[in-house]
């Protein structure tokens, strides 16, 4: 800083004021009359304080001369260095508290923001861990939508058919060559009144393949068989059902004495039980126990097992032939195996009709 750069005017005191109070114009910010100058005097002391004391307390320096001499002393090389150092210190001292506050506030803000992020992360982590603890499968995919549970369907009202619901009638005229005995009517059979009416049933196919009938008849020819082939039909249970397995043993056992009475009254030459289950029911009723595996066999049974024997002994009863079931739901035996068993029965029927002189009538196929 040079002397020409500092502009000072000493004005006379028009109102008689003391010449010890000069008026300074355009004084630099680091002069003693400025805010920073007073701050320097308070904080630093030293050369600035001494200069101020000299300026304010010297009685000999008055007016413009005093101001000029005072300025010369302050702008001397030694004082200039002190003023520059004081200026730097004053700037540092005045700026450091502000900068410190800013740094502290920024550090506090960053710390609070980091704490908030940590707290938010911990809350998310805790929520995820708690949700995964409740449902482990949900942690694998947070976006997985909950599975829709199927509404339980209302159970449809079920109706169990009775014997009165069946339209099937027995065809047992006297002195038949063969009486075919089934378990019970199927649903379609009970509805239509035709024996073995379901298309999957093998009854009509096996009658034809065994030679009992000359053609494969439709179920609607049920009531024509006695006149055409001297063959009849009946069941041990009259109640219709989808399958014979839906019948109880008590129902089947109760039908055996009824069957015995029908056979004794009409006296067919032979009785064919269509299905193993019928013979098992006969065995239970007669012996009071279930038949053993080694005791069962398909085909003709012993003469002691004849059915319909009378109490007075005038009729020895009808021989019993156990054939396979014709139901399409029974898959325990193949069709060729069934046909082999039925072929044995058919051969006997053809032979017996020839011996008695019964001539089967072959219906015309329209």
UniProtKB/TrEMBL annotation:
Region of interest (Disordered), ranges: 1-24, 53-162
Keywords: DNA damage, DNA repair, Hydrolase
UniProt-recorded Gene Ontology molecular function terms: pyrimidine-specific mismatch base pair DNA N-glycosylase activity; uracil DNA N-glycosylase activity
Biased composition (Low complexity): 105-144
Biased composition (Basic residues): 145-154
KW Oxidoreductase (keyword) present: no
GO terms of biological process kind: base-excision repair, AP site formation
Uracil-DNA glycosylase-like domain span: 171-345
Stretches with biased composition (Polar residues): 10-20, 53-63
InterPro entries assigned to the protein according to its UniProt record, in alphabetical order: MUG/TDG, Uracil-DNA_glycosylase-like, Uracil-DNA_glycosylase-like_sf
Annotated SUPFAM superfamilies: Uracil-DNA glycosylase-like
Protein name as it appears in the record: Uracil-DNA glycosylase-like domain-containing protein
Organism: Penicillium oxalicum (strain 114-2 / CGMCC 5302) (Penicillium decumbens)
């Amino acid at each position: 800083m040079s002397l020409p750069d500092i502009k000072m005017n000493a004005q006379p005191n028009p109102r008689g004021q003391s010449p010890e109070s000069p008026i300074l114009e355009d004084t630099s910010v680091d002069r003693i009359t400025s805010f920073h100058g007073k701050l320097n005097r308070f904080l630093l002391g030293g050369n600035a304080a001494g200069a101020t004391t000299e300026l304010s307390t010297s009685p000999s320096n008055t007016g413009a001369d005093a101001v000029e001499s005072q300025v010369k002393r302050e702008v001397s090389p030694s004082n200039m260095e002190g003023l520059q150092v004081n200026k730097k210190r004053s700037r540092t001292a005045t700026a450091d508290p502000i900068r410190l506050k800013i740094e502290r506030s920024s550090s506090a803000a960053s710390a609070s923001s980091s704490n908030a992020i940590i707290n938010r992360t911990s809350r998310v982590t805790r929520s995820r861990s708690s949700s995964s603890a409740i449902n482990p499968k949900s942690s694998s995919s947070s976006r997985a939508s909950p599975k829709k549970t199927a509404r339980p369907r209302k159970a449809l009202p079920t109706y169990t058919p009775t014997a009165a619901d069946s339209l099937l009638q027995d065809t047992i005229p006297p002195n038949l060559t063969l009486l075919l005995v089934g378990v019970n009517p199927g649903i379609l059979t009970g509805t239509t009144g035709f024996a073995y009416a379901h298309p999957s049933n093998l009854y009509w196919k096996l009658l034809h393949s065994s030679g009992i009938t000359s053609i494969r008849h439709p179920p609607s020819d049920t009531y024509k068989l006695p006149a055409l082939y001297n063959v009849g039909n009946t069941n041990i249970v009259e109640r219709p059902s989808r399958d014979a397995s839906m019948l109880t043993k008590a129902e089947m056992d109760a039908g055996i004495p009824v069957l015995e009475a029908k056979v004794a009254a009409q006296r067919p030459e032979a009785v064919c039980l269509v299905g193993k289950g019928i013979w098992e029911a006969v065995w239970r009723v007669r012996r009071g126990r279930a038949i053993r595996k080694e005791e069962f066999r398909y085909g003709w049974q012993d003469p002691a097992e004849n059915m319909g024997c009378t109490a007075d002994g005038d009729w020895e009863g009808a021989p019993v032939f156990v054939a396979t079931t014709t139901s399409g739901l029974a898959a325990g035996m193949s069709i060729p195996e069934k046909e082999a068993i039925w072929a044995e029965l058919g051969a006997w029927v053809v032979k017996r009709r020839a011996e008695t002189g019964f001539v089967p009538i072959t219906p015309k196929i329209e």
